[in-house]
């Protein structure tokens, strides 16, 4: 059986549970509620790997959390849903927007995954 045939035989994925967070301007960030055990292990690995600086390690962790939690982001009515669009927009965001995203993800983790709070 070829690779394509194996992919077709898989059961369709069920939609993941998500939570929406709106900022003051009406933009909505959608975050997944659950993480896989592998993702949690990778997050712990990031926290334990030596980095060039503490700032570098912090930046890697923040981007990793955004990549793993963000499943959608509607900005000025324009929905962003692919991983490429999401991370691209996050990297282009101004400091206030990035700060809001970080605070939102931190609050989300505190409620949904308290074991990940540093």
**Helix content percent band:** 40-55%
Helix/strand/pairing category = alpha+beta
Order of helices and strands: HEEHHEEHH
Our Rg estimate from Cα atoms comes to: 16 Å
Taking the alpha carbons of the first and last residues, their distance comes to 46 Å
The poorly predicted ranges are: none
How much of the sequence is in beta strands?
15-25%
Number of helices: 5
- Report on the biggest sheet: 4 strands, antiparallel
Average pLDDT value? 88
Strand order across the biggest sheet? Answer: 1-2-3-4
- Count of individual beta strands: 4
What is the 3D form? globular
Provide a quick synopsis of the model.
The protein has 118 residues and is of the alpha+beta class. It contains 5 helices and 4 strands. Helix 2 (37-48) runs antiparallel to helix 3.
């Amino acid at each position: 059986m070829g690779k394509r045939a194996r992919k077709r035989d898989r059961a369709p994925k069920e939609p993941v549970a998500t939570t929406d967070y709106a900022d003051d301007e009406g933009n909505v960030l959608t975050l997944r509620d659950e993480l896989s055990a592998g993702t949690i292990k990778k997050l712990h690995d990031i926290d334990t790997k030596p980095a060039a600086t503490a700032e570098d390690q912090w930046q890697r962790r923040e981007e990793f959390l955004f990549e793993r939690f963000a499943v959608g982001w509607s900005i000025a009515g324009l929905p962003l849903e692919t991983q490429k669009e999401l991370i691209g927009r996050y990297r282009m965001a101004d400091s206030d927007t990035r700060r809001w995203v970080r605070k939102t993800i931190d609050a989300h983790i505190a409620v949904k995954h308290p074991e990940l709070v540093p």
